[in-house]
Design a protein that fits this description.
With about 260 residues, the protein is an alpha+beta fold. It contains nine helices and eight strands. The chain has two domains: about 10-70, Arc Repressor Mutant, subunit A (Orthogonal Bundle); about 80-255, Beta-Lactamase, CATH 3.30.450.40. The chain has helices at about 10-20, 30-40, 40-55, 70-105, 145-150, 155-160, 180-190, 235-240, 240-255; strands at about 60, 65-70, 105-115, 115-125, 140, 195, 205-210, 220-225.
Length: about 260
């Protein structure tokens, strides 16, 4: 039976810093690279990596001999994500309902999931003609208002990864040029508001603002959507304040 590897508090802190060095993209790194990045002696890094591999927090690529986060780290990440998503939805539901009643339109949450944006929750508006969201639907980032406002705050590196997907043209209003899209995101970053003016469905408009995230760029947006004849320029202007107030309220309830 193998003897367990011992770790004191100082070693534990260094091991945790090794794991954190792989955030946010889990790029492969070797012992030398990790040592230089963290200012650790190579022998210390090698010893801690051996422990982290043994406990499945790191795994080694047999081809490159470099390391990446392993199954144990992945399990913790999944648990954290599920907890956050569950808490987010529980907190957001009454806030979205209140906003829907206040504006008379359907309201939704768009959520960044990996390099995609999905419709995480929706509350249908009380008006006779409503816009029906498909909960759980993956949204085209070139048209969805929430996706635009989320990605406008992302890092250039992450944005380029997202832009590897093909932009589908839905109608003449759809943005399919990546350069035009990049310029649009720069404008949205300044205003903090994004729109969908019939870019997917010509008879549907939407407006979105991000929910502030203290740990980094926003990953969630609050969206109001409905028929274009009701969500005209005057209406869109009138809902900016309550929309932002709702996003701020959700952010504060999440302790952001």
């Amino acid at each position: 039976m193998n003897k367990p590897l011992a770790m004191n508090s100082s070693s534990a802190e260094k091991a945790l810093n090794i794991l954190l060095a792989f955030a946010p993209y889990n790029n492969e790194m070797g012992t030398t690279e990790l040592s230089a990045k963290l200012g650790l002696h190579k022998s210390t890094t090698s010893r801690l990596i051996k422990l982290l591999v043994a406990t499945n927090f790191l795994q080694q690529n047999p081809m490159t001999k470099k390391y990446m986060l392993g199954r144990s780290a992945q399990k913790i990440g999944f648990a954290t994500t599920r907890s956050l998503d569950s808490r987010l939805l529980a907190i957001a539901q009454p806030c979205l309902t209140e906003l829907s009643q206040q504006t008379g339109e359907s309201v939704a949450l768009e959520l960044l999931a990996g390099t995609n944006v999905v419709l995480a929750m929706h509350v249908e508006g009380p008006s006779h003609i409503r816009f029906n969201f498909q909960q759980g639907e993956q949204l085209p980032i070139n048209v969805a208002a929430g996706a635009k406002v989320i990605l406008s705050h992302s890092s250039p590196e992450f944005l380029e990864i997202c832009l590897q997907q093909k932009f589908e043209r839905f109608n003449d209003n759809t943005i399919v040029s990546k350069d035009v899209y990049r310029r649009l995101l720069q404008e949205i970053r300044q205003t903090g508001i994004a729109y969908d003016r019939g870019e997917r469905y010509q008879d549907t408009h939407a407006i979105a603002v991000p929910i502030a995230n203290a740990e980094g760029p926003p990953k969630v947006a609050v969206v109001i959507a409905g028929p274009a004849f009701r969500l005209n320029d005057q209406f869109l202007k009138s809902v900016v304040i309550p929309l932002r107030q709702t996003a701020d309220k959700i952010s504060k309830l999440l302790f952001y």
